[in-house]
Amino acid sequence: MQEHIAIVEDEAAIAANYRDTLQRQGFRVSVYASREKAAEAFSLQLPDLAIIDVGLGNEMEGGFDLCRDLRSRSPKLPIIFLTARDSEVDIISGLRLGANDYLTKDISQAQLVARILALFKWVEAMGAPVQQNDIIERGRLVLNRKQLTTRWNDSVVELTHTEFAMICSLAQNPGHVKSRQQLMNSANITLDDATITSHVKRIRGKFREVDSSFTSLETAYGAGYRWSGNGL
């Protein structure tokens, strides 16, 4: 059965471009130009994945409101923000509302498709039995690579797919420094150094929300980052 992707985008040309790209990949795609039209459709049937712009028509944060509504309806529905708004405040807001990823519109079509496929694999993995080799344990840190879940001191840490890939890369070899390029490779993304730094800052913030004394993600100045063996 074809996966159904909903695109909520108020610029018709951009929405059509996304639609055509995804239809070529074999997805069934619906396009909605406003929060109201999308919400009406979602009240009848949820899509398999939603791609949402933040600003929708006259609603500067209509996408955030729609994400909040979708997440209340389905905790596991994959949600991607795809928007021109790239401030750290907007990114953090979108992720805290429960989006699985926050992308800007300069992302390539190939990368967008790769993120979508990764999210569908995550949905499939969530329903699969967990094998022992899917688990990485580093003291207080427990990573489930099958279900893409993170726990610290038995508390859930809500990471995006990109953040999870970075932590896995670091935690597999505690004490070893990973360069920014190596972290990008592990997450299958292409970002500038400032964006990698922002990702690390957000990761630290999420761990500190469950443990204010968290210090295990260290900066190796001029070289990259490492998972500290002291945090085991």
Explain how this protein is built.
With 232 residues, the protein is of the alpha/beta class. α2 runs parallel beside α3 and α6 (161-171) crosses α7 (180-187). The chain has helices spanning 12-24, 35-44, 62-73, 88-96, 109-126, 161-171, 180-187, 193-210; strands at residues 4-8, 28-32, 49-52, 79-83, 101-104, 135-138, 141-144, 149-152, 155-156, 217-220, 224-227. The strands form three sheets. It has a five-stranded parallel sheet, sandwiched between helices. The protein has two domains: 4-126, Response regulator (Rossmann fold), CATH 3.40.50; 132-231, Winged helix-like DNA-binding domain superfamily/Winged helix DNA-binding domain (Arc Repressor Mutant, subunit A, Orthogonal Bundle), CATH 1.10.10.10. The chain starts with a strand and ends in a 5-residue tail after the last strand. β4, α4 and β5 form a beta-alpha-beta unit. Helices cover 43% and strands 19% of the residues. It is built from eight helices and eleven strands.
Protein traits:
single chain; alpha/beta; Rossmann fold; Arc Repressor Mutant, subunit A; 8 helices; 11 strands; 19% strand
- Broad shape: globular
Give the uncertain stretches in residue-range form: none
Nearest-integer average pLDDT: 87
Order of strands across the main sheet: 2-1-3-4-5
How many DSSP E strands?
11
Helix content: 40-55%
The count of helical stretches stands at 8
Name given to the CATH architecture of the largest domain = 3-Layer(aba) Sandwich
Number of domains: 2
In CATH, the topology of the largest domain is named Rossmann fold
The rounded Rg comes to: 18 Å
Main sheet record:
5 strands, parallel
Going by helix content, strand content and strand pairing, the class is alpha/beta
DSSP strand content: 15-25%
Distance between the termini: 44 Å
CATH class of the largest domain: Alpha Beta
Query: What pattern of helices and strands is seen along the backbone?
Result: EHEHEHEHEHEEEEHHHEE
CATH superfamily of the largest domain: Response regulator
Oligomer: single chain
